[in-house]
Design brief:
The protein is mostly helical and 411 residues long. The chain is 49% helix and 8% strand.
Length: 411
Amino acid sequence: MTDARYIVDTEENRQFLAELREDLLKFGRRFPSPGGSSWYLGDDGTPWTDRPRETWITSRMTHVYSIGSMLGFPGAEALADAGLKGLAGELHDEKNGGWYPGLTKDNDILPMKQCYAHAFVILASSSALLAGRPGAGELLENALAVYDRYFWDEENGLARDLWNTEFTICDPYRGVNANMHSVEAFLAVADATGREEYRKRAGRIIAHVIEWAAANSWRIPEHFKTDWTPDLECNKETPDDPFKPYGATPGHGIEWARLITQWALSSYPDDKENAAPFIGAAENLFNRAVTDAWNVDGAPGIVYTTDWDGTPVVHDRMHWTLAEALNTSGMLFHVTGKQSYADCYETFMKYLDETVLDHVNGSWFHQLDAQNHLKGTVWPGKSDLYHAFQATLIPYLPSEISIAAAVKKYC
């Protein structure tokens, strides 16, 4: 008999997600360092103080606990404020502007300036602004100004990835991952502040990604040269790189499908005809990724990467991919009404409960091998809550609005 906890739109599933959400918020409470930047959390939520305290993780935790405060989780306000303290303080480069990637255990700065990290600062400050946290508005304006000056390429309608610490030399690499999280951040800004120019900017990025994916059997090229020609052989010798893996990343195809759907519904709220091609593209991305990656090697799970013919390269299962699969399958079911997406959601929920949830120590296992045994080569421990936490909310929130804005308006 099917467990009702796994079926989308059942009261049992809603309650199960609420319990998971509460457990996650409890698990992550020890993230703030004295300066506010986020410790990397270990398997049981104990801070790993020998690892760098990174801006993207601090931003994610600030985002999560800002939403947690709007949901009434005890102590979430103080935790969100701690993250804001780190972003406004020790992680911020007072001399050159922008944010360091992070700090070492000895408080030395990590070099470079990353678009990826700056996109998450924008997301965190947008969520904190909606939550009414002190200093969030100023942080958001600062983050947008830095992003617009250094990372946004108006001519191409895409984002640059990396600068040196002083913002004097731009790295030649271009990539889709930072652009994906830029889309997420831009939609959040538009929803939080009404600045629709950022929604339009997100649409420019999305148009490129759909074009690239459609020309490549709906497998998104991840890495590009400076002139935005795909570099399909990038990192072939290090295929499990956590941020620049070789080949196609099915989890990103799934995540892009969600963001494209959100953008289309928010950009064309009363125009189904114009929204339809984008919803179709989202379906193509999701279905390609699931076909290529789900349960393709004799065990359940979504493989990390494939080659350009869809053959698995890195068979490990990452928790964030499953979280996005839950988000997108739930969203596409509600948007299209197609039972196949509800079936996917049920399958993914069952796998989550039986395999990926850590029922002993809390949170989700972040990396499993091809036989679903715990592995820690790419993502040891349980660095943050962002993906897992969002997967307890997004499947039931309105599809046209960013998560923090939806929680503020509807929860």
